[in-house]
Design a protein that fits this description.
The protein has helices spanning about 45, 50-60, 70-75, 90-95, 115-125, 140-150, 165-170, 170-180, 190-200, 210-220, 235-255, 270-285, 300-305, 345-355, 365-380, 385-405, 420-430, 440-455; strands at about 5, 15-20, 65, 85, 100-105, 130-135, 155-160, 180-185, 225, 260-265, 290-295, 305-310, 320-325, 360-365, 410-415. It is α/β, with parallel strands linked by helices and about 450 residues long. It binds pyridoxal-5'-phosphate.
Length: about 450
């Protein structure tokens, strides 16, 4: 038996504001562009799609601190502060002199960090008099968070779930329905986009792209309805900074400051959430913390993509975003970490990577599950397949400390638990899980296509 130590905050110590790193960045992110005019986007261009307050937050490069509305803060108290845990068990299993800490976002009612932004988005919609929200979901984590948040604030939620995961991952559908959401397998006959696809191909199994098109179409065509998104966008990452702001105070209680901060990387919201509050001390106070984003080797936008304007979706409906991307037509392999299968990175993180303020590593699927198994046995929590990437990157750094004898302080974000992903663990244990790697050819092909589209 190994002791474990957890750090919490009192209610009155919970953050009252989110941190907007855009205000402190020396090189600000380049502006998103209107795809038709190629002019920089204004907040009002986004008003038909998202709640107004969220559009303003999205493009805010001036205010470093944004008040967390009381109603959202009250809901955060249902599960926050989340524990900051000293992972003695993992340290011992690795035999490392490093001090490993993790922030446990899996304790939220829906099992992941996504609720931090879902509550904020639902609240701002409600405040504006919106009655209905839509979204798409692949693996179902975001859909579950939004469904619950909508219920909290008395909104109707319509979720388009990619048809193949609707059928293969029935538990997340049931979770969304339990919270009262209407879940539709996409493509569906309920939108023009869906009808078009199904008339051509009645057996179409859907993709995130088709689900986005349906959710956006419904939002635009329904009065008092708005669309919501669970990652990539700057306002989503803003809400997630509650993770790092809490962690900063909790690390203080532990009497330490991180040398390295690590998060898994899909679109960047949980990575930015834990990193940005610490990164502000690198920018403003000369701290030298390293920040590492851990992405899957099968979807390596940060380590092998290019920095340029690209669409956020496969259909090419969204604004053009300046980001590290593999091209919006890039089709990642069907790895279990569904939340990390996105072709691009958020604009803030992309700029930070370009400017050398952070690093990125890619992790193969088997290494991620090696790490998840070790963590489960050492700390008792079965991590989400996405979170396993952060653990794998942490283990690499801890093993490096073992070689050099350095007692570095490593903090990583445990973005969610894996209790609904046991099929993936089962495949790992039965030896049928495989690695997927992208060939240079594949990367080049999609990027070359991209250059044609954008010019
Ligand atoms: C969605 C998700 C991610 C990836 O999204 P980011 O925006 O990159 O954080 C990671 N972990 C879990 C558990 C998720 O549900």
């Amino acid at each position: 038996m190994t002791k474990q130590k957890r750090f919490f905050l009192e209610e009155d110590e919970l953050p009252r504001q989110w941190y907007n790193i855009q205000a402190d960045m020396i090189n600000k992110p380049m502006p998103p562009l209107n795809p038709a005019t190629k002019e920089p986007l204004q907040p009002k261009d986004l008003y038909p799609i998202f709640a107004e307050e969220l559009c303003n937050q999205e493009l805010d490069q001036e205010n470093a601190w944004i008040d967390i509305p009381d109603e959202v803060r009250e809901m955060y108290k249902y599960y926050r502060s989340t524990p900051l845990v000293r992972a003695y068990g993992l340290e011992k299993a690795l035999g490392t002199p490093a001090h490993i800490y993790f922030k446990n976002e899996s304790v939220s009612p829906v099992g992941s960090h996504k609720l931090n932004s879902a509550l904020a988005q639902a609240y701002y919609c409600k405040k504006q008099g919106i009655t209905n929200v839509t979204t798409e979901t692949g693996a179902g984590q975001w859909g579950a968070a939004l469904s619950y948040a909508a219920k909290v604030f008395g909104l109707e939620a319509a979720v388009y779930q990619v048809k193949i995961s609707y059928n293969q991952k029935p538990y997340r559908r049931m979770i969304m329905q339990t919270y009262g959401a209407q879940v539709t397998a996409s493509p569906s006959m309920s939108t023009r986009a869906g009808k078009d696809i199904l008339t051509k191909d009645p057996n179409n199994q859907g993709s995130l792209g088709t689900a986005i098109s349906e959710a956006v179409e419904l939002a635009i065509n329904t009065p008092n309805c708005r669309y919501t998104l669970g990652s990539v966008l700057s306002h989503v990452t803003l809400h997630q900074t509650v993770i790092g702001l809490e962690a900063e105070k909790q690390m203080e209680k532990a009497g330490e400051y991180p040398d390295i901060v690590i998060g898994c990387f899909g679109g960047g919201s949980n990575f930015g959430g834990i990193s940005f509050p610490f990164m502000r001390h690198n920018i403003k106070d000369g701290k030298k913390t390293r920040f590492i984003a851990a992405e899957p080797a099968s979807c390596p936008k940060l380590t092998r993509g290019v920095f340029q304007y690209d669409f956020g979706d496969v259909a090419g409906y969204t604004p053009l975003l300046p980001m590290f991307t593999l091209g919006h037509n890039f089709m990642p392999a069907n790895i279990h970490a569904g939340g990390l299968r996105y072709h691009g990175a958020g604009v803030i993180v992309s700029q930070l990577l370009k400017d050398g303020l952070m690093e990125a590593v890619d992790i193969k699927q088997l290494e991620s599950f090696d790490a998840g198994m070790l963590f489960a046995q050492a700390e008792g929590i079965i991590p989400a397949p996405e979170s396993c990437h952060a653990i794998a990157a942490t283990i690499r750094e801890a093993n490096e400390c073992k070689k050099t004898g350095e007692e570095k302080v490593i903090l990583f974000n445990l973005s969610g638990h894996g209790l609904i992903d046991m099929t993936a663990y089962d495949q790992y244990m039965s030896g049928s899980l495989q690695n997927y790697e992208v060939t240079d050819e594949d990367v080049q092909k999609n990027i070359a296509e991209l250059e044609k589209v954008i010019k």
